[in-house]
């Protein structure tokens, strides 16, 4: 199982790196190197913010309380 997870992560990471390289190579001549680097930095920060917001929503105490209440109702029907 661990090998499959590692293989999946490697393939997805290498695929995204390839797309990022192509996008950066295309942006460089179009908008300039400095602007292309700023655009890539902005996208990196944006992706981190999106991932952290999803993690924070999934781990919120209200969501955990709702899941606990639902599980309790399923185990103990009225």
TrEMBL record:
Transmembrane portions of the chain: 7-30, 36-58
Highest taxon in the source lineage: Bacteria
UniProt keyword list: Membrane, Transmembrane, Transmembrane helix
Official protein name in the record: Uncharacterized protein
